[in-house]
Structure formats: structure tokens, C-alpha cells
């Protein structure tokens, strides 16, 4: 069995007196493509922030690559595409190449400069997401779907073993969402990158993810996609707190 | 003017200083603008005025010649930069509040110190609007020192500062020490403001940090190109402003800013023209 990449045990997190997450236990193993779903305010983004070390849990433990998060140093093993990626300052004068180069900043380290090899890596990452012809374009001049690809390239350039994406398809049109999922599928299958994807698009996600976690302050479901799709509509509605039907579409 | 330039040391001091601040003010301003901190330069410059007034008061009341207003201004500006950071942390949801707090504090202190020093004098007027004759050789060497510090720090931390400016959350997730880098940055801003005041004056220093950048981001492809363009625009503004200021005997702060605004208007027009040409070509 493959190694765990993220492991959370009995994690609780409160914002002042308000419970955000309670008794969270879950694990993602290497090579998995996990979908994280749940209603708004259910704690999905909080969970991501805990994994990224931006928040500290009041109770419980988190391990990344079998290392307690407090001692974890290899942050370049983790790529992150945030919810905010497509709400950045559109007027920022940064080329595609400059944006992707940020993915290597931490890996290159303080007081050091990008080498020719780093520049080649940046171009390779841009090529991988199919955006080579836009290398010298300002990121603000691209469409939402193209920008999202650039942010994926930024996350990929440091060769991460785990890629975390927080609602990356918000504001992206349907056709590009489909292309986006194909890219994720390819990264997972060909480069064995473990994926954790937060999404509201439950239907499309079930076509691609191997595992699913349902979160609404506590864990309501943690299993594989087949088990998830076997859930009845009433189970899902109980979990979301309102009526929900799984609708999947191919385009 | 060229003959006078070789004859008078004060003119040489002014032009060399002008060239240096024409380089560092837009360079640092490029980061300030994209981080949406343009008004912080204004707040810090007003605190620098308080420091200068404090220095003038010391000179007048206690005849402390070794502490010049240039250094007291710089000291106040650096201390204020620390306060700005603290206030931004205290008011996380209202970070812009730091600006009026620091700005009004600076003006308030300035009024007190100016009154204690028995009111305005020509030197204070020079600090407010800049001067072509106020830069001493000592000031020039201090500004050379500040330029070397600014260039070295920006070169060494360019990639981290660029990342923090574009996406602070991503920078923090990647393990960048955002607070320390930001602190370093705001300290540099305080130093550059103090260095620029002799030439452009307290009231117009933020213009030299923002107007060339405002023009460059209309035209540039990428951040590096935007920095290069803003420095070119900054240097043109300073040189044209100093020459016209000298000939018309008016404070160079005003002429530098007016030149910057003309460049900005030309950049906006050029961008519009470029877009229209692009559209016409696309329609053909």
C-alpha cells in the first residue's frame, strides 16, 4: 500500500468560540485523486489552510509525508492553487513566465538567483499546461481558463508530489473546465501527483476522483468514488442540509 | 548651465542626487504601486517632515550642528515605518487606516516642532517643495549610501518581494518569511523618501515614486520591463524638472511632478493609440 501524504487525526479547529472543524480524521495516500466537497461554510478552505500550515489546530495532529506539520520543511513538495488565484490584481504587470517563476522562489532559496536550468524548468511547466505561445504575455490579458492553467504551471514547476486546488474552476467556462479536469487527470496518471481538489462541481468530479471526502464541520463521508455514487439522494441531502441530486455531465 | 554645472559644487550635488533618486524612487515605487501602498509613501513623507522640523528646532534652539535635519527626518521616517507595520497588524481588516493615523500624526508633530522653532524659514520651504541649491556634499554621500543599500537589498530579495507583491498568501504557503521581507521593504521605503526630499520636497516625494510607475504599467509587458520603463521615466522627469527649475528659479519638486504627469498622459495616449491600431488591424 502506498505511503500516506496527508494524515489528520482527531483535528479540531475553532474561530474564537465558533467551531469550524470537529474531530477530523482522514488520510490521503500517494497517487490518490481526492475530491473534497461540502456546503459553503462547511470548513473546506479551513481544512486546506490547516494542511498548508496557515492555521494551527487547537486539538489533534497533522502529518505531511509522515512528518509532523510543525517539523515539516519540504514545502516545495506541495503545490497549491488557491481559490483566490483568479481574483488576483488583473492589472499587475507580470508576464506568464514571471508568474510561473514564483513557483521556484522558495526552492531556489534566499540570496540566490534563477539559473538557466531553472528558466528551462519554468518553460517546461508552461509547455505542460499548453500555454507556451503566451510566455511573454501579461497574465491579466489572458482569459480566466488560461490564467488558471498558468497557476497550475506555477504549482507544478517545483515538481510537487502533492497538488492542492481550492475551487480552481470558479469563473471558468464549461469547455475549459472539461479541459482543466483532463489536465488534472493526466498529471495524476502520468506523473503520479497526488491531488486534493476542493470543488462544488460534485457531478464532474465523480468522473475523475478516486476518493471523496464530504465535509460539513465534521466528516460525513470518506471513501472511494464508487461508494460515494452509491449514496442515496437523501443521504446527500442530509449531509448538505438541503435537497441535492448528483448530476454529471461530460462537457 | 553646463559651465555653471562645472563651476558650482551645489549644482553637481543636486544633479548627482537627482540622478540617484530618479533611479531608486521609481524602482521601489514599482513594488509600492503593485502592492497598492501608494499612500504609505505620502504618510511617511509627512512624518519625515516632522523629523526635519525637529532637526531644524534642535539647530535653532540648541545649536546642535552635528544632527542635521536630513538625519532626524530619516530617523523619524524609519521609526514611522515600524509603526505602519504594527498598525497594519492591529487593524487587519482596515489596513489602510495606518495611513491617515501616521499621516496626521506626522503633520501634527510638524506643526508643534515648526512652532517651537519659531515658525517657517527658507530652509523649511526647501524641504517642502525641493531645491536645486540645498544639497550638500554630505547629503550626496548619504544618498549614495542609501542607493547602494536599496540596490543591494532589492537585488538579493527581488524574487521574494515580487512574489509577495503578486500573491502574499501563496508566498506565505511557499515558506517565504512575509513579515520580515515586508519590514525590510518598508524600511527601504522610509530611506528612499528621506533621500528624495532634498530634491522633490516632502509634499511631492510620493509623486516621484508613483507617477513614473503609473505611466510604465500602461505600456510594459511584465514586471521587469515595467521597472526599467519607470526608471527611464523617473530620470527624464528629474533631469527635465531640475533644468527647468534652475532656469525658471522655481522649486524643482513642482517641475519634476509636472514632467511626470506629462509623461503619464503621453503613456495613456500611446496605449490608447496602440489599442485602436490593434483593433483596426484586427478588423481588416
Automatic annotation (TrEMBL), chain A:
It comes from the Bacteria. InterPro entries: AAA+_ATPase (IPR003593), ABC_transporter-like_ATP-bd (IPR003439), ABC_transporter-like_CS (IPR017871), Metal_Ion_Import_ABC (IPR050153), P-loop_NTPase (IPR027417). PROSITE patterns: ABC_TRANSPORTER_1, ABC_TRANSPORTER_2. GO terms for molecular function: ATP binding; ATP hydrolysis activity. Keywords: ATP-binding, Nucleotide-binding, Transport. Residues 6-241 form the ABC transporter domain. Pfam families: ABC_tran. SUPFAM superfamilies: P-loop containing nucleoside triphosphate hydrolases. Belongs to the ABC transporter superfamily. This is Zinc transport system ATP-binding protein. It comes from Sediminibacillus albus. The lineage of its organism: Bacteria, Bacillati, Bacillota, Bacilli, Bacillales.
From TrEMBL, chain B:
SUPFAM superfamilies: ABC transporter involved in vitamin B12 uptake, BtuC. It holds the Pfam family ABC-3. It comes from Sediminibacillus albus. Belongs to the ABC-3 integral membrane protein family. One of its GO terms (biological process) is transmembrane transport. One of its GO terms (cellular component) is ATP-binding cassette (ABC) transporter complex. It is found in: Cell membrane; Membrane. Keywords: Membrane, Transmembrane, Transmembrane helix, Transport. The chain crosses the membrane at residues 15-34, 39-58, 64-85, 97-120, 140-158, 179-197, 203-220, 227-248, 254-274. It is a multi-pass membrane protein. This is Zinc transport system permease protein. InterPro entries: ABC_BtuC-like, ABC_TroCD.
Amino acid at each position: 500500500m502506498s505511503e500516506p501524504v496527508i494524515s489528520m487525526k482527531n483535528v479540531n479547529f475553532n474561530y474564537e468560540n465558533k467551531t469550524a472543524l470537529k474531530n477530523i480524521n482522514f488520510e490521503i495516500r500517494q497517487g490518490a485523486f481526492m475530491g473534497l466537497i461540502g456546503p459553503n461554510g462547511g470548513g473546506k478552505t479551513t481544512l486546506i489552510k490547516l494542511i498548508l500550515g496557515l492555521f494551527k489546530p487547537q486539538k489533534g495532529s497533522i502529518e505531511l509525508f509522515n512528518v509532523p506539520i510543525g517539523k515539516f520543511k519540504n514545502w516545495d513538495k506541495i503545490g497549491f492553487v488557491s481559490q483566490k488565484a483568479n481574483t488576483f490584481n488583473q492589472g499587475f504587470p507580470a508576464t506568464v513566465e514571471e508568474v510561473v517563476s514564483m513557483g521556484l522562489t522558495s526552492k531556489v532559496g534566499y540570496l540566490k538567483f534563477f539559473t538557466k536550468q531553472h528558466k528551462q524548468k519554468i518553460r517546461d511547466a508552461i509547455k505542460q499546461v499548453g500555454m507556451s505561445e503566451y510566455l511573454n504575455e501579461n497574465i491579466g490579458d489572458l482569459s480566466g481558463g488560461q490564467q488558471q492553467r498558468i497557476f497550475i504551471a506555477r504549482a507544478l514547476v517545483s515538481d510537487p508530489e502533492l497538488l492542492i486546488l481550492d475551487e480552481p474552476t470558479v469563473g471558468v467556462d464549461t469547455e475549459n473546465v472539461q479541459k482543466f479536469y483532463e489536465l488534472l487527470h493526466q498529471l495524476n496518471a502520468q506523473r503520479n501527483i497526488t491531488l486534493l481538489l476542493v470543488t462544488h462541481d460534485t457531478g464532474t468530479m465523480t468522473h475523475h476522483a478516486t476518493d471523496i471526502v464530504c465535509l460539513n464541520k465534521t466528516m460525513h463521508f470518506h471513501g472511494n468514488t464508487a461508494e460515494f455514487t452509491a449514496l442515496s439522494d437523501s443521504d446527500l441531502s442530509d449531509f448538505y442540509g438541503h435537497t441535492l441530486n448528483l448530476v454529471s455531465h461530460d462537457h | 548651465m553646463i559651465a555653471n554645472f562645472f563651476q558650482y559644487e551645489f549644482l553637481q550635488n543636486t544633479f548627482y542626487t537627482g540622478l540617484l533618486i530618479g533611479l531608486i524612487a521609481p524602482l521601489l515605487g514599482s513594488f509600492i504601486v503593485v502592492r497598492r501602498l501608494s499612500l504609505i509613501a505620502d504618510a511617511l513623507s509627512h512624518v519625515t517632515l516632522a523629523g526635519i522640523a525637529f532637526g531644524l528646532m534642535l539647530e535653532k534652539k540648541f545649536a546642535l550642528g552635528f544632527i542635521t535635519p536630513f538625519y532626524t527626518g530619516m530617523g523619524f521616517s524609519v521609526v514611522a515605518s515600524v509603526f505602519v507595520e504594527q498598525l497594519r497588524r492591529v487593524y487587519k481588516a482596515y489596513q489602510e487606516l495606518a495611513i491617515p493615523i501616521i499621516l496626521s500624526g506626522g503633520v501634527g508633530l510638524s506643526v508643534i516642532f515648526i512652532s517651537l522653532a519659531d515658525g517657517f524659514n527658507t530652509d523649511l520651504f526647501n524641504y517642502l517643495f525641493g531645491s536645486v541649491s540645498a544639497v550638500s556634499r554630505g547629503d550626496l554621500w548619504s544618498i549614495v549610501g542609501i542607493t547602494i543599500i536599496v540596490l543591494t537589498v532589492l537585488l538579493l530579495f527581488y524574487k521574494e518581494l515580487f512574489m509577495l507583491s503578486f500573491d502574499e498568501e501563496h508566498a506565505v504557503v511557499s515558506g517565504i518569511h512575509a513579515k520580515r521581507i515586508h519590514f525590510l521593504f518598508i524600511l527601504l521605503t522610509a530611506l528612499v523618501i528621506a533621500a528624495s526630499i532634498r530634491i522633490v520636497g516632502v509634499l511631492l516625494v510620493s509623486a516621484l515614486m508613483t507617477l513614473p510607475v503609473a505611466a510604465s504599467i500602461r505600456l510594459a509587458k511584465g514586471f521587469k520591463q515595467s521597472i526599467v520603463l519607470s526608471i527611464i521615466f523617473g530620470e527624464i522627469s528629474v533631469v527635465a524638472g531640475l533644468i527647468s527649475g534652475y532656469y525658471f528659479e522655481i522649486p524643482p519638486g513642482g517641475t519634476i511632478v509636472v514632467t511626470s504627469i506629462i509623461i503619464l498622459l503621453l503613456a495613456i495616449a500611446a496605449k490608447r493609440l496602440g489599442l485602436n491600431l490593434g483593433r483596426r488591424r484586427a478588423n481588416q
